[in-house]
Amino acid sequence: MRGTAQVPASKSESNRALIIRALAGAGELHNLSDANDTQLMQRLLLDPTAAEFNAEDAGTVMRFLTAYLVMTGRQTELTGTARMQERPIRVLVDALRELGARIEYQGQEGYPPLQLLGRTPAPATEESADFTELKVRGDISSQYISALLMVGPTLPHGLRIWLTGKVGSRPYIRMTLALMQHFGAVCRDLGEVLEVRPQAYTPTDYTVEGDWSAASYWYAVVALAPDGSHLTLPTLRRYSWQGDQAIVGIMAHLGVHTEFLADEQVRLSKTAVGSGFSQDFTDCPDLAQTVAVVAAALGVPVLMTGLESLRIKETDRIAALQTELAKFGGFLTDEGDERFRVSSTGFRVNGQSVATYHDHRMAMAFAPLALLGPLTIEDPKVVRKSYPQFWRELEKAGFNTDPAPAPVF
Ligand SMILES: O=C(O)C1=C[C@@H](OP(=O)(O)O)[C@@H](O)[C@H](O)C1
Ligand SMILES: C=C(OP(=O)(O)O)C(=O)O
């Protein structure tokens, strides 16, 4: 294994930059992601008169657009796939209602689809109030908090959010604040409290970094490749806003060494694996599948915590991992108290077929196992959500895929 693999641009950064640019009115965005989640966000933001918006299976699109559309006074319906209609949104809807938004549930209370009916300005806050205040729980999805923060500068008194509960995916909140600041917003992260001053965004240019969550699949490839393998990934920064850069430290336990080169490149090389470790995924839930598969394949025991949010993503990722790993001799055992242990006995790849449950990360997390033997990935098009060129890049790296990857768009 030698060479260079292209990762897509970060869909998380792209989708924030698109919302903030829409609020700023202008600004050039470079290296936007070709992920369906980002292409979709771009198309929907360009459609000012649509009577219905479909966020498909994109959590950021659903949550960010709910706040953006309703707070900019749009009256429209916002829906998504069958799975999106099972992903909760009540925390965000309740918070927006407190800000004067009129939102109705079209189906089940607490879930999309939503009817957005515009906004009646909230009762005049006292003159002395320096911020409009909200209490928001942080233990279901950080996307609600990012969605609220991004519209914060447009509110007459700005916004002060008190976070309650165990806050998950916090690096994504920091990324939101960092991008807002890049576009001239004045905000402060005080831990439990987040503050945004009322102030127009400044039109600014931004170049999106490569996607560290997508990079994790190349870490998996190097971890499972023969000794002496190495791989270069362009567009990844040493100082990243993405919490999934945590893959650098995690994969050091699984035999991948990272070197940051000049010109925003990282070089991965294969080294010795460690004897086992514990890892909390609260800050980086999207890495859990990659790590579980590699650890099981290498026979490195891992105690995984912080997986709570995995149950409400594209699929129940804990159940999906348990079912699919078992086909190979891998286990993700629930030890109670939200602790899960990865283990394996006689892990073998010999033609199994992996179900992907409409989840791009199931497909990409299991694909690197092809280094150990042949396997089938069902419904390979799922990768279009975040990494449409994934199969093509694997072919370029020397994997044989049948059928050969076709353009996914
Ligand atoms: O804000 C974002 O861009 C994201 C936040 C995370 O979701 P949660 O906050 O729901 O954990 C992550 O899993 C998702 O892929 C992208
Ligand atoms: C959970 C994910 O995305 P979202 O929540 O934005 O649909 C993901 O990309 O793994």
Automatic annotation (TrEMBL):
It comes from the Bacteria. PROSITE patterns: EPSP_SYNTHASE_2. CDD domains: EPSP_synthase. Its EC number is 2.5.1.19. Keywords: Amino-acid biosynthesis, Aromatic amino acid biosynthesis, Transferase. SUPFAM superfamilies: EPT/RTPC-like (SSF55205). It is an enzyme of class 2 (transferase). Residues 50-394 form the Enolpyruvate transferase domain. Pathway: Metabolic intermediate biosynthesis; chorismate biosynthesis; chorismate from D-erythrose 4-phosphate and phosphoenolpyruvate: step 6/7. GO terms for molecular function: 3-phosphoshikimate 1-carboxyvinyltransferase activity. GO terms for biological process: amino acid biosynthetic process; aromatic amino acid family biosynthetic process; chorismate biosynthetic process. It catalyses: 3-phosphoshikimate + phosphoenolpyruvate = 5-O-(1-carboxyvinyl)-3-phosphoshikimate + phosphate. Gene3D superfamilies: Enolpyruvate transferase domain (3.65.10.10). Belongs to the EPSP synthase family. This is 3-phosphoshikimate 1-carboxyvinyltransferase. It comes from Hymenobacter rigui.
